Amino acid sequence: MNLLARFLSVPLRWKLLGSLLIIGVLIVMMTLFAGAQYARDVQPIGNILVESLARERSITLQAIVNSITANLRNLVDNPPLQDAYATLAAGGGSASIQPAQALVQSVFQNLLDNNPTYWQVRFVSIGGRALLAVPSAPQVSEVEEDYFRTFQRDLTFSGIFISQITRRAPDFEIDFATIVRRSGRPIGYLVISVDPTGRNTPTQPSILTALRPLNVPAGVLGFYLIAPDGRIDTISEATVEQTPEQRARAAQLAAQTFTTPINYLSPVTNRAVRGFAVPVRGMDRVLVAEAQVLLTARTDETGRFLAEFGAVSLVVIGVLALLAFFLDWTVARPMRLLAEAAQRAAQGRGLPELNIHQNDEIGSLAAALPALGNISRQDVRALESRLSQRTREVEATRAIGQTLFTLRDTESLMRRVVELLCTTFEEITHAHIFALDAGAQMLVMRVAHAQSGESPLRFGYRLNVSPRSVAGRAIQGGQFAVQLFDENTPNEMISTTRAELALPLRMRDGYFGVLDLHSDHAETFGDAEISLFQTLADQIAVAITNAQLFEESQARLAEIEDLNRRMLGEAWRGYEVARRRAMPRRGFTAPEHDSEWSELQLSAYQTGELQERIDEETVTFAVPVALREQRFGAVEWTVPRTTYNENMRLLARELASRLAVNADNARLLEQSQRLAERERLVNTISDRLSRQTNVEQVLQVAVKELGQALRLPQASIRLAADKLLEPVQESGESHARNDE
Questions:
Q1: Are 498 and 485 in contact (CB under 8 A)?
Q2: Predicted confidence (pLDDT) per residue in 284-340, tens digit
Q3: What class has domain 78-194?
């Protein structure tokens, strides 16, 4: 084997590792080179960093100061609090000052509770005496404080005084103060002492957070605040001992307008630095950000850097191109051939000839691929066969499901189910449906079917609900039960059965029974088949439930319809009787039944069909008046023979039907009116009776009103004592007469 062949046979992992090592070395070299150039030419980036951080932290400081200032303004501008301040400043007895103290103390405590960074809130008199502080502190003189001296110099000051950051071991503190006025007259000072470290709220920005130095790869960025008089606030020390020269430089730096970072002598470190200053609105200070380690660069090296970087890039590109060709020849090309061959093998097709002569992992894979292709083709054929079988089973399940939900008779449904199971699934030789009896102790055969035609089992075949039978185990366990049989242990129902599967038919309130399937092959009921037949069993149970509900609803509808017909007939018979009884009272004479009805009307009423008599020029026909199969009249027409046709008969039937509906509606309306009139009369009589004050008057009014309501010429009421309790005493009688 020559040198090239040996090199191509190197294991793939060593090829990849070598390639990655070469790429890594090149990347390291480029990184070192770019880093060196960055260290020389980083000044523009440093300028951007110093300026952006200065502006960002000034915004943070402005937000903090604005929040504290707003709280201080709210305490000063509140009218009830102003009254309380005036009371505290005026002094007086404890009875008059206690409510004011309670109000101010409550407001101060609420402010402290809502702002964990606040140390203390206090109200100080014009003379410098702390009148009230929360949390409480000894009432000491504040005359030495900066804010007091500032306010004493100018009592017309209307802004917010912000002190320097001071260290009161072991904590830092900064005061925010303002003058409290009442009717334009100063009455004291409000002071909020704040923890600038934000120790109690570590997740929120604080003053010292904005002043904390920042370590960057190129050095350290420092931050500090300068007051207009040149005083400096830093986080490194609470008070900075400044020489007059440093203070003058700081004041000059604070007064200068910055548009870009500049080089200057730091008033803090007395070293040459590059920095940027931003005014902090509302704080009357300037925030300075400066690079304590100065970053310098020579911009005249930019062209040289670009040339050197371009040359190195060309070299790297060339090396990577050679590396890419090597990897393509030794890895990518063989892998492409193997991928194409594997794809053909996965599709079950023959493999092409692979021109791969390497002895590494790729060569071993190419040698093993033909065997894998043969196995893959076998798997594809088996999978296609299985998929085809599953497709047929799914289609059969869908067809059975569609058939199930088109039947509404329970017996027909069950017979059709077992027939479809045996005809659709060739492996099912016998199918039965057992139903639980009323006591849930026996399973009774309802339907049976066999592929051979007639099942050896008949309707009424019974099984005990016990573990001895497969169906009994399915009911007791509430899930499928399967059992295999052979010649030595035959099935108790069918001797040729080699596998039996029983599936419970679950209903909403229990079990209907069991779907029992038999097969002559022991391997019929696998996991997939059991899942399929379980789905079918659930569908069958739902279909049986729907069929039973449909049968019950049909029976109830028939009962309701029959009851409606009977009630309608009774209502019309009662109405007819009442109408005939009312005719004499209304001045009418009730005609004889036979004289009102013609022969055709009677025939139509009795038969419920149209009756007709055809003469030479006319046709007389009668149509029954019926509603809900209850006949209560007939209508008779006489028309010219030339106009009598099927359309006229249809019209007559429609008119008779409409007449029946309208007549029944009129009867109901008349009945409701009578009931309403009767209710009105009863209410009227009850109202009049309730107005009487003795029994005699009640009897007189009752007999009169009843006589008038019933239109009777005479009415009487008699009251008798209880003869059982007083057998000897003569009974009393009260008689009232209604004279119209």
A1: yes
A2: 889 999 886 544 444 444 445 556 666 776 777 777 667 767 776 777 677 777 777
A3: alpha beta
- 3-class state of residue 405 by DSSP: coil
Nearest Cα to Cα of residue 367 among 379, 381, 351, 343? 351
Distance between CA atoms of residues 57 and 65, nearest Å:
12
Structure pTM? 0.39
Helical packing angle, 695-710 and 646-690, nearest 10°: 160
Residues 653/656/658/664 CA torsion (nearest 10 deg):
-140
212-296 CATH: 3.30.450
Strand partners of residue 622? 611, 636
Give residue for tokens 């090597």: 326
How far CA 131 is from CA of 101, 147, 149, in Å, comes to 9, 16, 18
516 bridge partner residues: 432, 502
Pairing of strands 611-614, 618-627: antiparallel
Fold of 405-554: Beta-Lactamase (3.30.450)
* Among candidate residues 573, 40, 17, the one with its CA nearest the CA of residue 295: 40
Percent of residues, the chain, with pLDDT higher than 70: 74
Taking the C-alpha atoms of residue 598 and residue 636, their distance in angstroms, rounded to an integer, is 8
Q: How far apart are CA 516 and CA 448, in angstroms?
A: 9
Could you give the residue range(s) of every CATH 3.30.450.40 domain in the chain? 405-554
Q: Which two tokens stand for residue 107?
A: 């407001």
Can you spell out the DSSP letters for 634-702? EEEEEEEGGG-SHHHHHHHHHHHHHHHHHHHHHHHHHHHHHHHHHHHHHHHHHHHHHT--SHHHHHHHH
- The 3-state DSSP class for residue 194 equals strand
